[in-house]
Amino acid sequence: MKRERWRISVIGAGRLGTAMALALAARGYQIEAFVTRRKGHAERARRLLRERDPAANPRALSAAQLTELPACDLLLIATPDDEIKEVARSLASALPSGPSGGVALHTSGALSSEELRPLREAGWRVGSLHPLVSISDARSGAGRFAGAFFCLEGERSALKAGRRIAHDLGGFAFSIPPEKKALYHAAAVIASGHTAALFSLALELFQRCGLRHKEAQRALIPLLRSTVENLSAKLPARAMTGTFARGDVETVKRHLAVLSAQPEALEIYRLLGLRALRLAAPSAREEIESLLRLKGKVRRK
Fold this sequence. Notes:
Blueprint: E1 7-11, H1 15-26, E2 30-36, H2 39-52, E3 59-62, E4 74-77, H3 84-94, E5 103-106, H4 117-121, E6 125-132, H5 138-141, E7 149-154, H6 156-168, E8 172-175, H7 181-191, H8 193-208, H9 213-233, H10 236-239, H11 243-246, H12 249-259, H13 263-280, H14 285-293
Parallel strand pairs: 1-2, 1-4, 2-3, 4-5, 5-6, 7-8
Antiparallel strand pairs: 6-7
């Protein structure tokens, strides 16, 4: 591919695909087309891009219009994981001969570039590029790639293209073997998606204390932010504060007692408490571990 101005077609214009298109366009990449199952979604992504760059004029296509896809240097496939393999087959059928040096990248964190085998057989260089960042909205998400890390995997030409994209978006790149993708993605889900789930549980418990949802959110966000700041500067064992870091046995008993009527919250508390004990290793570790492993109610003396 030429260095000057890559032509990109984005397959799947959800939050991530659209955010990447907006970010890439802002850095000189030429977005040729958006393709979605429903053409209206592609048209919405097209409008967002034109709001930022009136000179941009990508085509908005439905999945049934793949044969009308404009010539491009890079296919960026940002569909849900379960659709990638079928999308690759459809693209290979519609574009039976890939352009010289053409690259196809999918954005799945869990799947390897093997999902794109039909495109590889059609002449495309294939790989995967997963931005390690949380994108909940396309507009704001376009600015979140700067400083983010991108996990790359695939053929040499695809890795080179992925590294350039990461660099041009202000991010950093690293590569892993294809057989490690699922493990890598599980770790990312624990760090991000599960954090959101835990925060949801904390909000619910605060609301049971009498706070409104917005009040609980406002109260907990600074706590979460301070935890992230601690983790940015220290190893987890040194960043952790609170009950398990200190080894407060009686406080753990109180927690287990009040959570006993809420089995889901109790089980989460137990499992993460055991992990916290491994990090903190307080003097009362054995006593607290015994409490956490008890299945019956814990009563305070």
